[in-house]
Amino acid sequence: MKNIIDLVNKKPWVGWLLFLVTAFSIFVVGMLASNIFERRMEAQMVYKPINPISDHETRNEKWGLNFPRQFERYRATRESDTQTYAGGSKKIDELERDPRLVILWAGYGFSKAYYQGRGHYNAIDDMRNIYRTNHEKSPGTCWTCKSPDVPRVMEEIGVAEFYASKWADLGHEIVNPIGCYDCHDTKTMALKITRPALIEAYERQGKNIEDATHQEMRSLVCAQCHVEYYFKGKGKYLTFPWDKGTSVEAMEEYYDEAEFKDWTHAISRAPMLKAQHPGYEVWKTGTHAARGVSCADCHMPYRTEGGAKFTDHKIQSPLNNISNSCLVCHRESEETLRSSVENKQKKIKTLRIQAEENIVRAHFEAKAAWDAGATEEEMTNILKLIRHAQWRWDFASASHGGSFHSSLETARILATSIQKAQDARLELVKVLAKHGVHDTVEIPDISTKAKAQAVIGLDMEKIKAHKDKFLKDIAPEWDKKAAERHDQWDAQSAE
Amino acid sequence: MKNIIDLVNKKPWVGWLLFLVTAFSIFVVGMLASNIFERRMEAQMVYKPINPISDHETRNEKWGLNFPRQFERYRATRESDTQTYAGGSKKIDELERDPRLVILWAGYGFSKAYYQGRGHYNAIDDMRNIYRTNHEKSPGTCWTCKSPDVPRVMEEIGVAEFYASKWADLGHEIVNPIGCYDCHDTKTMALKITRPALIEAYERQGKNIEDATHQEMRSLVCAQCHVEYYFKGKGKYLTFPWDKGTSVEAMEEYYDEAEFKDWTHAISRAPMLKAQHPGYEVWKTGTHAARGVSCADCHMPYRTEGGAKFTDHKIQSPLNNISNSCLVCHRESEETLRSSVENKQKKIKTLRIQAEENIVRAHFEAKAAWDAGATEEEMTNILKLIRHAQWRWDFASASHGGSFHSSLETARILATSIQKAQDARLELVKVLAKHGVHDTVEIPDISTKAKAQAVIGLDMEKIKAHKDKFLKDIAPEWDKKAAERHDQWDAQSAE
Q1: Model confidence at B82, in pLDDT bands (50, 70, 90)?
Q2: Which ipTM did the prediction report?
Q3: Long-range contacts, stretch A468-474, CB < 8 angstroms, 24+ apart
Q4: How many other C-beta atoms are found inside a 10 Å radius of the C-beta of residue B149?
Q5: A423 — contact with chain B (CB < 8 Å)?
Q6: Longest CA pairwise span in chain A (Å)
Q7: CB contact set of B305 (below 8 Å; sequence gap of 6+)
Q8: CB-CB under 8 Å, A416 with B411
Q9: Which runs of consecutive H residues, i.e. helices, occur in A88-213?
């Protein structure tokens, strides 16, 4: 210290230098401190609503005024044509990719059109556009998972009444695509179950969904829709078939006991089940669920913008976002992880295609048996085997992500599907022989979607014309009425 | 400091107290230092051979003089009756547990006796005792994996000559159970490949096994034996069928192209393949292999005794030793990990049993078809389907640990086995119908091992008598000759 004082006494410019360096350092520290405070403020602002959200507010963009980051990311589920994995907006035609599906769903709406799921933002558009919905026939229940307007209208007219309505009668009410109000409380932003079917399924199992932890809720809000369900009874009451458990066998037993069928197969006359998308149930059997990893952890990982860390509401395949999802826990390269997942998908796909091949054949062989004069008695067990084989194939295939979420369980289910389809075919050979048919049953040309649809007698021109008429004449009316309602809401809140 | 000096001046006993505390502290530090040095010495001693090991030394207990800890743990593979999982010495009779196996292996030695594998120490005893070996018929190749005497004798008489010998002619040479010399260099203790088949398989693929890293060697020394192999040609030359790859399909194709069969099935007359134990090949397709975890990492984890950390040579199922194996990487409770593995095993088991059921039926239905007058032409493809179905079932079942090492791959393989067996049965129904058989083919009572063995016409009394005679008259002679050789070695090294 003394040396420095001596030096300054000798050379005064050294003193000035020291003064300047010190002053500059203090300035920099001040800047940094300010920056930290600013970022804290920024982080807090994200979670502080400026515009109160009214109890019926189902428009995502209105919530977005308070939560711009979450909203913008949610809105990004609309467009992502460059995306390779599910959750993008590329409209991948699954029937074109695999025309066997047309045969498997003969007599059921899915044979008309089936696309890979797109992002949540597209829910209403896709629902209106798809040939599976019919403005003269579809029930209100079809809307259940498509919009935050659903719980609003359910509250207004009653749950059972909602389901029992005509799809077209609710069309002007259900216009906002899946969004904020579906999973969040308007006041606290806490995660919230808004769909009765999940709450009721819990109740029937003697559980209260309000006991769920926050981490469980980060999966349960998804389980409102990404599950197996059916339309029960004449009132088309949306119900989860979970009363005996959530395994493929437990639900199969449930449906069998209830003597439920989604439709009668147009080729084999089997009483069929359509698996919905039991993603939640299959995920529950896998490693990630066992380790306490929720849906949101991977499909909505945290994201940082500036100083704000928030849940990424661009719900998508983690394969589109490995660095933010997988790499939080896994210390592997993106390529290693991706190829590991794709390797699993490839293996499962070979089993899926094999199961489809068997079941397609079984349907045509059953038809040949009927044509040859087989009796109801001879066919009952065979049709049940076909029903079970296809249910299991569909369960494994429609549980999107199953080959990743729980690859062993998915392979196991497909193996039992293969077994049952082949059992059916074994019986069919015997029945056919009994009725004088010894030759191998020929499968018609189903090498393209159009050919397969022709085989099952679908008049696609007629279906298209019917849909076009709806889109031209009716859908715009719905939008008009909805706009009036929204204007009214705005007028009310301005008062 | 000044205060303390003042205090000591005032109260001299404080000075003595300080002196004593200081002296004691220094003493303790000295003790600790000594302890550390001692432990270092102990740790080093473990790896410092005291007794040089001669180049032909195949007696594990002689190596054990230098490496008592490793040897004692190796020796513990002898006895572990309380063990639940593979690697214990409980002799679990697999044919008794699942008599379908007797049918599946009809016409082949495995139908006589098949036990769950026991620890390495029991290799020679088990080899001599089992009904599958026959002192009048078995070839020398059967010894290949059972003893460190094998590479020694191979060096003396030649590899091809070893394989082409009679099993009984080598019996007096092959007496020490699997041990040190099988995997270690006598001088450097480095891991070493002593079996030609693995080296040759690498060479045919254009690879040099000497390029393997130490971590790879920690799996490759196991892959000398825990793999798929066959006895090629008249010289019974031990060969790995890896030339087209190591997947179940690649090896199947290899065998088909070579028109190789292990035996002709006694019931169906199908040209069969016996899968050995393709544990290494299946492990390679799983997560642990992908993450660079070697066989030794889990089956021979590090163990600490006193100051010595060493590789636990009690090779066993990690499920017997979760805390030292799994918990090194996994932060889960033992119970969680155990039930996760057992859950996988359970799922795979259902598929395995299903595959067996199908294949057993296929064998009997094929026999019925032959009996009804089916032609070679009608049966060729059917028998090939049976061959492939059973090969795949056997591959999945015999790749011990497959449901853990690579559960998806194991399930996939079993699913293809199910498919192929059912395809065979579909064809069989047609052939049977063509020859006037319309009834379901009855399966005889195979509910116990004894009943199943009676069905395939095994004279177990005769087999037992033959083995008893060998154990009474011949085996003791072998031991006598071996003892003389060992005495001679000792005399030589004493010179």
Answers
A1: very low
A2: 0.88
A3: A470/A128, A470/A135, A471/A128, A471/A129, A474/A135, A474/A168, A474/A171
A4: 25
A5: yes
A6: 121
A7: B69
A8: no
A9: 94-97, 100-104, 123-129, 149-157, 159-164, 167-170, 180-183, 196-204
